[in-house]
Amino acid sequence: MNKSKTLALAVGLCAGLSAGPLGAQDPLDLTPGEKSELFLEHLLRFAGTPREKVMELALRYELAAALSAEEEAEVDLVGDFIRDAMLETLERFRDGVRAVEAGKDGDAAPIFQELAAGRDPYAKAYARFEIAKIHERAGRHTEAVEALDRLLRENRMHLIPDAEARLLSARCYETLKRDLIAYLEYLLFLIQFPDAPKAMRDDATAKAQALEAKIGKPLTHVASRMDKIGEWLGEEKTSDDPTQKEERELVSALDKFIELAEERERRT
Q1: What are the structural domain ranges in the chain?
Q2: φ, ψ for residue 2 (rounded to 5)?
Q3: pLDDT at residue number 260
Q4: What is the pTM of this model?
């Protein structure tokens, strides 16, 4: 959907029309315009936002789009549009963001946890992302990657900054010195977000190259350990088993390899 159609879509939706089928179903294939389309329908049909407010938000988006000279800025426009709309229409989300902006992550966390447990899919997605960022700022990188993995697996249809989430995941894995997983996360970012800002892609490329130089060819490393993975999967091991951590890491790496292979196949 072209940016200029956003206001027309809002008018149609407010008149009771359906937005119609989307051109893509995979979250990574949705255009920024299609994501704004989904969000407008959500405001009216799920959140119960007054029609006047939806029209006001759509008009504001149109004005911002008209002032944007660069087409690649559309993803930022849609991201700002959705986040700003949530701040205006969802009081608890606004409370959480204000707490973060005031440096009060401890006050923000329970608010976002409440939203993450709710039914609103946009509130859930953005709240989970905020929770992950709170963990990362506090140095709880294991909790951060767990939150980000779940977010990217379950909620990316409703999250505009999914490229930012994927890159943050890679950086957290790298901080944890889980180099193989971090390397694969950087590769996933590069293949999934070819239109990400150049600075983000350059950083991810440099980090991936540095990690590959450090760990060698990752696929060869994992293949050489396949016998151990099979042995581990077929046995019960206690939590203090010295090999358990390595084997779990290799199984996680296999999951990432599969995701990477599927993504490459989908884009060919």
Answers
A1: 3-87, 161-267
A2: -70, 150
A3: 80
A4: 0.80
Q: How far apart are CA 77 and CA 6, in angstroms?
A: 12
Task: Judge whether 134 and 113 are in contact, CB under 8 Å.
Answer: no
Q: How many CB atoms lie within 10 A of CB 259?
A: 18
Looking at residue 73, its pLDDT comes to 54
Low-confidence ranges of the chain (pLDDT < 70): 1-25, 64-65, 67-76, 218-246
Q: Which two tokens stand for residue 9?
A: 């879509």
Which residue type, as a one-letter code, is found at position 218? P
Report the C-alpha gap between 135 and 126 in whole angstroms: 14
* 48 CB-near residues (< 8 Å, 6+ apart): none
Task: Compute the C-alpha angle 144/146/152, nearest 5°.
Answer: 100
CA distance 8 to 12: 6
Is-contact 229 247, C-beta < 8 A?
Answer: yes
The residues, any chain, with a CB within 8 Å of residue 176's CB and separated by 6 or more, are: 141, 142, 145, 182
Residue 11: per-residue pLDDT: 46
SS (H, E, C) 3-67: HHHHHHHHHHHHCCCCCCCCCCCCHHHCCHHHHHHHHHHHHHHCCCCCHHHHHHHHHHHHHHHHH
Q: Which of 173, 166, 178 is CA-nearest to residue 259?
A: 166
Residue with tokens 């051109």: 23
3-state SS of the chain: helix, strand, coil percent to 5? Answer: 75, 0, 25
* Burial class, 179, CB count within 10 angstroms (exposed 0-12 / middle 13-18 / buried 19+): middle
